[in-house]
Amino acid sequence: MIPREYQQNIFETIKEKNSLVVLPTGLGKTLIALMLSKHRIEQFPKQKILFLAPTRPLAQQHFDYFKANLPELYAELELFTGKVNQAKRYKLWQNANIIFSTPQCIANDLKKNRISMEEVSLLIEDECHRCLKNYAYTHVAKKYQEQSSNPLILGITASPGSDQKTIDEICKNLNIQNVEVRSRFSEDVKPFVHNLETDIVKVDLPNELKSVIKSINEIYDKKVNELKNRRLLFMPATKKSLLELQARLGRLVSSGAKHFNNLRGLSICSQAIKLQHLLELLETQSIYASNNYMKKLLEEAENNVSKASKEITGSNNFSHSYFSIGQLLNNQEHPKISKLKEIVSEEIKNNIKAKIIVFSQYRDTGIVISNELNKIAGIRSKNFVGQKITKTSGLSQKEQKAVLAEFKEGIINVIVATSIGEEGLDIPEVNCVIFYEPISSAIRKIQRAGRTARLMPGKLIMLMTIGTRDEIYHYASIRKEKKMYGILEGMSKSFNNQNKTKTLADF
User: Fold this and answer.
1) 64 & 130 share domain
2) Nearest CA among 168, 179, 109, 196 for reference residue 144
3) Is residue 176 part of a domain?
4) Same-domain check for residues 260 and 326
5) Which of 170, 211, 250, 298 has the highest local Cβ count within 10 Å?
6) Domain limits at 249?
7) Are 160 and 305 part of one and the same domain?
C-alpha cells in the first residue's frame, strides 16, 4: 500500500525514537505500524517484532492486515493466544519474526520466564491509552525496556485521554520521546478525510416521566445533603466524587475506623450512587432499562443482598415511582426511541444500501432499540455487545464475529453497539453513526465518531434529552477533546525542542 503524505511524515519521525502516535480511527495507524515494522526488520533481520492489542479479535485483525500487505515470505507471522499451550507458544516465539498477541498472554509468559524480550527490536502497543497502572501493557513495556538489546516502542491510539496526569503516565510507562498527533482538521490530513455532517437532535421528556424523576431526585437530594451534613462530602455530588468518597470511606472502615459516621456515610454514599444511576437511566436511556434496574433494587432488598437497596426501596417515593414506571412501560417509551426510529427510517429511505451504527451506553437500552427498529420495514438490526455477563446477556467472540460479517455483507443494516463497537474492531465504513446519548469521555467520543466519514461522506447524529445530564456530558466531551489536543500539541513541541537542543549540542 502507498502511504499518504501524513503517514509518511509520521513514519519519518518515529524511526529512531519511542513514539506516541495519536490519529483518529480510520486514518491508517496500522499502516504506519506496518511501515515501521518493515524498517526494523531491515535494520535487525535476526530480531523480532511484538505487536500487542487489547483483545483477541483486534490482535487477529492486525495479524490479517500484515499478512495481506507484507510481501510473501517477507516474515514469519504468528498469532499468540492463551489457548495455545506453553510448549507450542515457546516454539512459535523462537521461530516467528512478527508476533501478534494480547498483552495478558505475553505478560504471563514474561512473569514465568518462558520468554525474553532481548531479541525484540520493536514493541507496538495498540490502544495504548490502556497503558496505565497495573494493566498488562505496563508490565510488558517495563520488561521490554529492561531486556531488549535494540529497543524501540510505538504506542498508537485515537485518544490517550484528556488530562495531563494520565497522558504523562502513559508516556512515562512507554518511555516516550516523541509525540505525533493529528486530527481530522490537521493540514496534511484534510485532503484524505470526507465531510462529516453533525446534527444534535433534542427531545423533551413527557410530564409523566418528569414526575418520576422529580420523585427520585427528592430521595437523592436527601442522601447528598446527609453526606454534606455529616461533613463527608465537600464538593458537588458527581459520579466521580461519590465513587471516590465511597472508596475513601471503605478504606477507613477496613483499616478499623468503624465509628458510626463512617459506617453510615458508606451506606448513604452507596444509596446515592444507586439513585444517581437510576436517574441517568430515567433521563437518558429507556423506561425498560429503568424498570429493570428498579426491579433489581427490589430483589436485592427482598433477598437482603444490599442494605442500601433496602433503604431506597423502603421509601414511599420509590414505591410510587416504581408503580408509575410500570404503567408507562405498558403505554410508551423514552421519547428518544421514537425519534431514533424516525431518523433511522429516513436514512434507509434515502439510501436503501445505508449502513448505520447506533451506540448505546447500556445493554438493556440496546435491546429496546433493536427490537423497536426491527418493527420498521426495510430495517434489519442486531445488537453488538461484549462477552456474556449472564446466561441471557452478551455475545461470545464467535457470535460477535458473525454479527460483523452479516453487517459487512448487508444481511443486517443496523448495528446497535455498546462500548465494544468503539475500540479498534474491523467494522466496515458506515453512512451514519448515531449516539443514543452523549458521553463525557473524549476517548470514547472520538472512537465512536471515527466509524463514519472515512471512505465517503458520513453523518454523526446525537440524541439529547433537554435539561438532563445529556447536555452536561455533551459539553464536557467537547471541552475534554479540545484540552487533549492542546496537551498533545504542547508535548509534541516540547519534544521537538528537546531534540533540536540535543542535536545542536552534538556539534
Assistant:
1) yes
2) 109
3) yes
4) yes
5) 170
6) 207-331
7) no
- Any idea which residue has 540535543 for its cell? 502
Residue in the block written with cell 451506553: 361
Give the integer Cα–Cα distance in Å for 192 and 23.
13
> What one-letter code names the amino acid at 316?
N
Residues β-bridged to residue 381:
414
Structural domain includes residue 494: no
Same domain, 299 and 358: no
Distance CA 55, CA 43 (A): 29
The sign one gets for the Cα dihedral 67, 124, 139, 128 is: negative
Domain co-membership, 142 together with 199: no
Return the C-alpha torsion angle 267, 269, 274, 280, nearest 10: 170
If one counts the domains in the chain, the total is 3
Phi, then psi, of 323 in degrees rounded to 5: -65, -45
Is 501 inside a domain boundary?
Answer: no
**Domain identity same for 281 and 419:** no
CB 213 within 8 A of CB 283: yes
CA gyration radius for the chain? 25
Provide the whole-model pTM: 0.87
List all residues 6 or more positions away from 13 whose beta carbon is below 8 Å from its beta carbon: 19, 178, 180
Spatial CA neighbour of 182 closest among 484, 498, 441? 484
Helix (H) or strand (E) holding 344: helix 335-350
398, with CB counted inside 10 A (0-12, 13-18, 19+), is: exposed
Band (pLDDT 50/70/90 cuts) for residue 504 is very low
CATH code, domain with 390:
3.40.50.300
**Residue written as cell 430495517?**
379
Q: How confident is the model at residue 429 (pLDDT cuts 50, 70, 90)?
A: confident
C-alpha cell at 156: 498508537
> CB-side exposure of 25: number of CA atoms within 13 Å?
23
- What is the SS3 assignment for 196-219? EEEEEEEECCCHHHHHHHHHHHHH
360 and 387 share a domain? Answer: yes
One domain for residues 292 and 378:
no
